[in-house]
Structures are given as C-alpha cells and as structure tokens.
Specification:
- The structure is a homodimer of 410-residue chains.
- Chain A has 410 residues and is of the alpha/beta class.
- In chain A, helix 10 (172-188) crosses helix 11 (200-212).
- Chain A has 18 helices and 13 strands.
- In chain A, the strands form three sheets. In chain A, strands 1-6-5-2-3-4 form a six-stranded mixed β-sheet, with helices on both faces.
- Chain A binds chain B through residues 86-87, 89-91, 134-135, 137-152, 154, 164, 167, 169-173, 175-176, 179-180, and chain B through 86-87, 89-91, 134-135, 137-152, 154, 164, 167, 169-176, 179-180.
Chain lengths: 410, 410
C-alpha cells in the first residue's frame, strides 16, 4: 500500500533527508509522481556483503533510508550479494576467504534479518540473493554484459586507477564484479539503488548498464559514511570505534555518551527519524542554554537503545550510566578474575593480559602508558608496575571508560 | 605413428626451420625427447578465425609448420575459434559481424578443410571447435579464469596499451578473449601452440594459464608474417597484395612471377619445403650466374602451383605465362564485353567500369592515370579519353599486368 498522505514535496523531503547525493532529483520526482498516479510501488535495491552480517550503527544509516522508502509503501529489496561469496577468492591468495556454502549464505541471511528487522518491517522486506540470476548466467551472457562497458570508464573508479598507478595487481575478474552488481539492477528492474557514498561508482555503473539493457536508469541515493566514536575515522569494526547493533543496552548507551557534542548532531541526523526541523530546534535550545548538552546526548542514547532493544532497556541503561559514569560508582555486577601470582609480585600488564580486557601484555602496557587503566580509582601510568598479592589480594580494575573488573590475586 | 627415423637434432632443425621465435628451445627438446621415449605423440594447437575461411599464401606459412609436426607423427589440432564467432560483436557496433549460426560455423569449417587439406594430411588432422568447452562454461568458471591474470599484464599487449593511451575505447569483454583462447590450451592440454608473430602475446597467455591450471606450459613456435606481392606490407586480402590458395593456376603463377628477386628467397623459405641448405645452394647458383633469377622464380611459381593444384596445372600455367607475359601475346581465351555506346563516343573509364576489371568509374580513372591500362597494346594516360564506336568498334583492353578483355562497342 502506497502512503498517499504526504504531498509529493513532502515525500521528496522525507526520502532525501540525510542523503549525501541524489542522482538525480528530476528523475526521482518523476518516478514518485508516476507511482503516485499508477498506485504501483517502486522497487528499491540495496546490496549487502554476504560475508559480514555483523552490523553496526554505520550500516543503520542505509537501513534507515530503506525504511523511509518502506514507510511510503515502496518495495524494498535487501539484496545479499552471495554470488561473489559463493565463488570465494578465486585467486586463492586470501586463505581467510574460501568459497561459502549455500548453507553459510542462508545462515548469514538469517543473522542479517535478525538485525535489520529491528529497523525494517519484516512483512514488507524482500530478501533476495543475486546468485539467483548471476549463478545461472552462461559465459556467453557474461561476455555480452562485459561488452557493454569500457575499460577506460572502469578505471575511473578511484581504487582501480590508484592501484594501477601504484603497480598493485588488479585481477581481471575484479573488473567483472561492478558489472555483475550493475546487472542486479537489470534483473530486479530497480527504480532506486541506495548505498554509501563509497559505493557511488558501482551505483552509477548500474544506471549505465540498465540503459544498455533498455531499462529506465535507476535513481541513486547515497547516504553519508557515519563517523565512528572518535568523530574522525569512519565507523568500522577493525578501527574499534563502532557500536554494534547487537551490543547490550548499557554498552550502546555508554558509547553514545562518549562522543563529542558536535558528533552528537551528526548522529541525530543520521541515526534517528527526527525531522531536520526537530533537530534544528533541539540544537537551538542547547545553544541558547535551555537544554544542557549532556541531556541532549542522553536523549540520543535513549533513542538509539530503544531502536535496537526497548524503552525499558533504555531506561535501565540510563540508570546504569548514571550510577557508573556519573556517580563514579563501580557497576553492580562486575566480572571477577582470579589470577594466579605464584612467584609473588606480578606485572599489572600481565594481570591485564589474563583478563578479557586486553589480548596481549604489550597492548596492556600501551593502555597503561596512555592512562587508560586505574586500580581502585587511581590512574596508573607506569607500564612496568608490579602488584603484590600480599598488599593487593583484591582490587577493582578499570580499563578505558567503561570496563570494570574485580581482580583476586592468589 | 611417430616418425623415429630422424635424430632428435634433425627433428629440432625440421620443426624450427623458418620459425620466427621458439619459447623455448630447452622445453621443446625435452618434450620431443619425452615423446620419443614414450612413443606418445605430442599435441599441437593452432587457432583459426571462424569468420575468414578464405586462405591466402600468408596463412600457409603456419599451415606448413603444422604439416611439419604431422610429418613427425604428432597430433595436430586445427582449432576453429567459433566461441567468439557464435557471440558475434556483443557491442552491437559492428553491423557486419552479427552472431554466426552453428550451420555457418560448420560450413566455414568445410571451406577451411577443402583448403588446408591441400597441405595437411586429412587423416591426421583433428578439426575442433572451442565452443565445445567455452560454450558450456558457467559465469562462475569464467570469473575463476579471469582471476588468474592481472590487468597490468593484459595491458602489456601492444594494441591494448596503445588504444588506452590514445583514449580509444576497449570494452571489458575484449580483455576476456585472450584468456578464453588461453583456456583452449588447458582444455586441449596442448604441448605446442603455433601462430604468427603477431599472436605472440596471446600464445604466452596460454603458457601462463596452463601453469595456473597445473599443466606443463606449452612451447610456442611463431612463424613470420609473410610479406605480400609488394614485398613491404603483410599479405592481406584488404591490401590486394595476396595470392589466394583457391586462385586459378595461371593467376598464382603470374602473381609469383611478379615479385622481386629478393622477395623470391623469402617465399622459398616460407612457402616451400626445401631445406635451408637446398635454398642456399640455389641462391648461390643464381648469384654466380649458373642459374638465371627468372628461372629460379619460375621454379618457385611451379612449386607453389603444384602445392595447390597439380603438376599438370603448373606445366600449363607455365606455358600460359610464357605466351601472355613473355611473348606479349594476347591470351587465347579472352573474355568479351559488349558495351552499348548509344550516344556515340564514350569515356574509356566508363567502358572499364562496365567490365569486371574495375568497380567504379573513379577507380578506372585512377588506373588509367597510373598507366595501368592499354588499348591494343598502347598505354593510355589520359583519364578523360573518349573512344568512338565509329573508329574503335572492337579493341583489346589490357588492365594491370595480367588482365585482358576484348571490347565490342555497339
């Protein structure tokens, strides 16, 4: 059912809110107008990597944009790009990327669903797999597809031209993947494709290839890449600056509270459904002193926890936060670590490396040097500090801003 | 049956005679040695274009090299690259190259056979089609193949790098064809691949790809590109400097007689089975005056006519040549053209354009200007010359060196 309550301009504003780029607005308006007249929903394609179903808030910017299309009654396709996953790494160089089995693909699809259905409407979301059409393509079909694009245009993609210039190898098959993904738009007859700004090139190839197959080109809407907790780098698992959407309520809440006031407004824009007007009003109140920035941030944290858990969970997380971080109390249910110190005194770094907080002694030493470790509330700075079970049989260890543990030396 | 009469060194000399390059001789010797011991013949792959079954002497250099392998008992595969032909021009830009039907491919194969079996032994020649394995390849297989080669190496091919530098378009599918052809060597488990020097890059890709699929790399033998009758450009239909192998005996004979004395030695080397020693001896005799160069050329012409027709045909062609070109007689059975000149005098160029000698009036005028046209043995130079049926009711027209016609103006 198409949502006919909004005017065309309101629909446009709703769909383009928070986007980085729309290519192009004229076509977007025309498509919406056509759909409004015919009552036929439009098809929205969004591709996801089959190997990484562990989502963080960075991904939700895109998923939230999918939801906006769902809200207006359009047909949103969560497309899992399993064709490439089923091939694996054909160069054989990447041992960590063997070909996936169909079972693994389906398992990852379930993990994805469990996460994205926190935002998307399961009833309205079509989960599809591009192996359905790419897998049955013949070499002949693939060659015909490749004939529709030139090498020069493919080399306009930043990472290809950079690698070629730096004499880093590009395997010929890598040139085929953007075309295969573009063909997905042909197979689905996509009206829209959504993606991060880093996907713009691939999305544009989709437009070109659709034209080559006699279809009306899809309209692209790119969303910004969300900055991580540091406010500088993009949010990513490997940079450890992320909020996973399956994290516990108090973790999510605490991490949101750790961001800068400036980043808070970016998160408001990209991670909530508040309208631009509502956000501007709130920002005004903070700037004129009517609302304390800490309160605005607590509201943001509560909104985000509610999205991925529940209102109750967000209330509890807020209370937990007040206790631990504001009143500087130690949390109630702290993990206990019993660590053997048989030779008497033991390096604090060694103790840390035996907890879940750090993986290695050298990482522990680095953390201590950076001032990220306290014992019983007292910050430690000497990475070579030894603790003696005789004088410290038990103590509270704090690592970073939010991790606590009770250490019992034996 | 392997030919075991020759020593290994004699085999090597026989197979490398007249080649431009062998990559590499050590492997060539090892393969021959292994085959000699096991009694197993080796597999020789030679690829041919499915769309051009009309062969000229330029092609026979390669076909003769195939015969040398057959003479030694090896397994020679005449491979018709019909896979690409069946696809046609997938860019749709080349209207003269639509996809071929299987019937057309088979028909062309028959035309090829009729020609190449003038040189090759039909009993020993395997005619195969690469659509047999490439046609049943899945997109997945093709991607795996493409993963085995880098773009940088592909761009080492002269025409790709030149076109990229000159900003001429290269479609992505063009990058796949060298890999598909290389895969032919995998499918056939080729021990050798033969080709013109202009095919060296593609043949080398075959070596690389065979290694990637765990096979021993094929040994390449390239043969020189034969110069055309002009002695400068390569022999080619489009340059009109060729001798087609289905041409009439007297045409072939006459065309051979038209080449320079220098080119004659090149043709001896590449178009006959005379050994290097035999050719050197003949050349010596010509240089010290024991043999007239014209006689050496007549022997060459006779050898070539015999190859593609018969000894009898070569004797007749020699007699025809003596009559027409040496004694400057008009040939016996001259074509007659009855041309209407109703308005009285008519341009000679117009007359020419109505015979089979030239297609258009402007071509006829050019020929006249170049001094290529005579009337009754008298060279004409004025392209605007008119002939009047009153004074010239009949005359002998000579066009170029070897074409005669009787013109009757009415």
């Amino acid at each position: 059912m198409l949502n006919q309550d909004l005017t065309l301009d309101e629909q446009l504003a709703y769909l383009t809110k928070g986007t980085a780029e729309v290519i192009n607005e004229v076509e977007l308006r025309a498509k919406l107008e056509k759909s409004r007249k015919s009552g036929e929903p439009l098809t929205v394609k969004v591709g996801f990597d089959p190997t990484a179903p562990d989502l963080h808030l960075g991904h939700t910017v895109l998923i939230r944009k999918m939801k906006h299309f769902q809200d207006l009654g359009h047909r949103v396709i969560f497309l899992i790009g399993d064709f490439t996953g089923l091939i694996g790494d054909p160069t054989g160089k990447n041992r960590t990327r063997p070909a996936m089995t169909r079972e693994e693909v389906l398992e990852n699809a379930e993990t994805y669903k469990a996460q994205v259905f926190k935002i998307l409407d399961p009833e309205k979301t079509i989960v599809d797999f591009n192996s359905r059409w790419l897998g049955s393509m013949s070499s002949n079909d693939l060659i015909r597809l490749c004939a529709k694009y030139t090498l020069a245009r493919m080399l306009e993609r930043d990472d290809f031209s950079r690698r070629l210039n730096q004499q880093l190898p590009i395997s010929i098959h890598e040139l085929l993947y953007p075309l295969a993904q573009a063909y997905d738009s042909v197979a689905l007859k996509a009206d829209f494709e959504l993606g991060g700004t880093d996907q713009k090139f691939n999305l544009l190839v989709g437009r070109d290839i659709q034209r080559e197959y006699g279809l009306e080109p899809q309209v692209l809407l790119t969303v910004p890449i969300l900055e991580g907790l540091d406010g500088v780098e993009k949010m990513s698992k490997s940079l450890h600056n992320y909020i996973g959407i399956t994290e516990k309520p108090e973790e999510i809440y605490g991490k949101v509270m750790s961001i800068t006031d400036l980043l808070m407004w970016r998160y408001y824009e990209l991670l909530t459904d508040l309208t631009p007007n509502q956000i501007a009003a709130l920002r005004g109140s903070v700037e004129n002193g009517a609302v304390h920035p800490m309160q605005a941030k607590r509201d943001l944290a509560a909104l985000i926890v509610t999205d991925f858990h529940s209102v109750e969970a967000s209330v509890e997380a807020a209370e937990h936060f007040s206790r631990v971080f504001q009143q500087r109390e130690n949390p109630e249910d702290m993990a206990e670590f019993r660590i053997a110190a048989e030779g008497g005194a033991i390096l604090l770094a060694e103790v840390l490396s035996r907890t879940e907080f750090t993986a290695t002694k050298s990482e522990a030493k680095r953390l201590i040097k950076q001032g990220g470790v306290s014992i019983n509330g007292e910050k430690i700075s000497d990475p070579m500090l030894q603790v003696d079970p005789a004088s410290y049989p038990e103590f509270i260890l704090k690592v970073g801003k939010r991790k606590f543990g009770k250490i019992i030396l034996k």
